What we know:
By secondary structure, this protein is an alpha+beta fold. It is about 45% helix and about 20% strand. The protein folds into 4 domains: about 15-85; about 90-195, Beta-Lactamase (2-Layer Sandwich); about 200-270, Signal transduction histidine kinase, dimerisation/phosphotransfer (DHp) domain (Helix Hairpins, Orthogonal Bundle), CATH 1.10.287.130; about 275-445, Heat Shock Protein 90 (2-Layer Sandwich), CATH 3.30.565. The protein has helices at about 5-35, 55-90, 110-115, 125-130, 130-145, 195-230, 240-270, 280-290, 295-300, 320-335, 395-405, and strands at about 95-100, 105, 150-155, 165-175, 185-195, 280, 305, 315-320, 345-350, 355-360, 410-415, 420-430.
Amino acid sequence: MDSPYFILLCSAVAAWYAFRYFRLKRGISDLTQALRATPPDGPIELPRFTDIPTLYEFRRVLADTLSEASLLRDSERKQREFQDALLNEIKDAIFILDRNREIRFVNEAARQLFPSQQPYQSRDFLEVCRDHRVEDTLDLAEELGSKVSDHISLRVSDGRSDRLRDITLLVEAEPLSFGQNAGITGSWLMMKDITAELETEQIRRDFVANASHELRTPLSIINGYLETMDEPDTDLGQAIFRRAIRTMRKHGERIARIIEDMLMISKLESAADLLNFEPFDLRDSVEEMIRQLAPIIESKHARVSVQANPAQDWSFVGDRFYWDQIFFNLIENALKQNGEPGLHVTISFTREEGRYLVRVIDDGIGIPAADLPLIFKRFYRVEKHHAQNQVKGTGLGLSIVKRAVEAHHGRIEVESQPGVRTTFTITVPQSFVRTPDAPVGRDGNDA
């Protein structure tokens, strides 16, 4: 056993195993370096090891496993990107929180609602929201183990300026859990800005209340006169009853005017896109309304003039009926608000940067500064007192004007210096102005 041949054989076997060991060790080292050098999102490039069967098989199995893991990772990433893009399209603010109330996801609407210079991920939710009432909603959701909702008023940044604005949010929260026995592992929170809906509902309630009040007054007067005139021994030929009939007729006309104005506002709000857009001359429209108001103009010894360059084409694509209403109401409003004779009303037309500017200017008593922000509200009237024989206007004229201008994608502004001048300025965008010789499309825009 101690012969030189046995020792030589053992040495050869040891040398062969040592060679195999060092080759295997070097192969594993090369494989480790290749794995470390592979980019996270890059292709997998591993040594072949064609001369080492053990490492070759190991490399093949490892490459297959890594490829499957890479495919799974890419699939999960794409799915997450799709989900993030989908949630970012939602206009409501969405937060997904873990069990410690740290943010795990926030969509774009939430970033706009709660702007921050710091990253949102892994931050405490209260640090971003800064309102304990929202935290109370989350606490209640976790306590009940179901979705809860609440209305919360917040003061947030305007986004376009440094001013703060008050908004009302519908806050919904619900705990999240994964698996039947996992327990609460987080929560989701959605905040919807319902300020506009609440304001619209309030406007609707105010409109119904004001309309009921405005209709009740003339109806009460008419019914009162009719009740008196219905007495058996009443002589309807008396002068007092003839005056009563004239008063009832005036109030009946006022009721009809209120109903017509309400229907007009309703049509403008519900079918603004269905207006009859066609080319017409703005100057013809205002001159026609001046002719219709001629009796009132003459009775008040007023003057109404139009200033427009006769060399220019004042054609416009819009609904002629509603532009007649715009001019009629603005001129009539100036005449009714100024009882003294000698009023001068000027309607001017100019062009600025591809826009029409229409100004209705009067030199009457003007509008107090406190009333300026309110004159376009429905049923709002500047005058507070009336003579007994004077029938009030509907208070809807300027509301119709504003809505009709907006239906033509324009805007109206008012400036007033009491006792000097009042100016209503209408600005209409280029998209509703027909250029000379340009065909008009079916939608009212230039073809």
